[in-house]
Design brief:
The protein is mainly α. The protein is built from 9 helices and 5 strands; from the N terminus they run αααβββααβααβαα. It has a 5-stranded mixed beta sheet, with helices on both faces. The longest helix is centred in the first third of the chain and has 176 residues. The radius of gyration is 74 Å and the shape is elongated.
Amino acid sequence: MLGLLALILILLVLIWARHKPQAGVAPELLQSNERLERELRDELGRSASGTRQELLQGLAQFQQVLTQGLQGSNQSLAQQALAAREAQDAAALRSVQAQAESMQRLNDAMREQLQALSKTNDQRLAELRLTVEQRLTAIQQDNEKKLEQMRATVDEKLHATLEQRLGESFKQVAERLEQVHKGLGEMQNLARDVGSLNRVLTNVKTRGVFGEVQLAGLLDQVFTPEQYAANVATLPGSSERVEFAIALPGQRRDDDIGGKPLWLPIDAKFPREDYERLLDAQERGDPAGAEASAKAIENRLRLEARTIREKYIGPPHTTDFGILFVPTEGLYAEALRRPGLVEGLQREFKVMLCGPTTLLATLTSLQMGFRTLALEKRSAEVWEVLGAVKTEFGKFGDVLAKAKKKLEEAGNTLDAAEVRTRAMTRKLKGVEALPDDAAQRMLQLGPGEDAE
């Protein structure tokens, strides 16, 4: 290394000498210098190459030595770390052992305390159990006594209540059975009545009975038996009889005996087949069949209205109109749906079409008319009675004045008697009163005379 530095130094000197101005220097010296310079350069190149190889070898050796040193350091560090880990493990083991010993001592102390506490609790529980058993025994004995008393009382009350309730229950059951028996009898009667009604409605000859019975029931609700009649020959000399007729009194004076009633004929009709065909057609959704059945009902009602007009209406023996009664509201509604049917019956045949509801309203109006006529008929008699009452009322006033005078005289007499009674009472204050028995014997009064 030092040789290399010396060669470099010589080379630098030669370069300096070459570049310095050579005044008076011999050419041979210059050539010698140049040759020396070249030799130095070659030597310097060789020295540099050798130095490079030495450096590389030194670096390789240094790297090997460094690697070996690092390996030794790693082994030393590993040994130190292992020693530290072993020391740490030993310290941890000692700490764990110390903690285990401490926990063991704490566990022993806790076990001793728990044993002592358990013994104390056992003693207290035993005492408490003994006290509770004693109290429960006393309570049980007391409860048994009270339950026995309650059982006796409840048995008595239950026996009495049970007998009473059983008697009432058997009585109610007997009454209900009797009602059921009556209901069964009524159901049997109703079944017979329904069968009879079915026969009536299915029999073509007797179907009119249904309308007549319903009409009779409605008339009986509104009128008295003297105000209407059944099967009436409304026209003199005619054999045709209407089912019912309302008697309107005081409207005819064409006989020698007195006024005869003016009849209002009412006839009941029930075109059942046409109505049933109409209902069937409506249920099937058959407009053509429904229209044909409704038209048949209309023709039938017009025919019946013509019959009433020709057979039963004849003023002045009857009113100038009659009533055609249909027994069901459904049939009446279907008749109202026909355009112009009701008005045509009234206009052409003087016949009013009525159902069960409208007939009641019409008959109620007629009943009010009867009451108005009766009031008009009795008004003269009422005025006569009022005149007689007015005459007698004047006499009654005179009699009342005399009675008042007599009452005033009796009142004055009673006032005078009361004054004398108070005076006698004041005088008798100093006299000692006798007992009731002695007073009755002294005055010779009976047992109840003093009360009178």
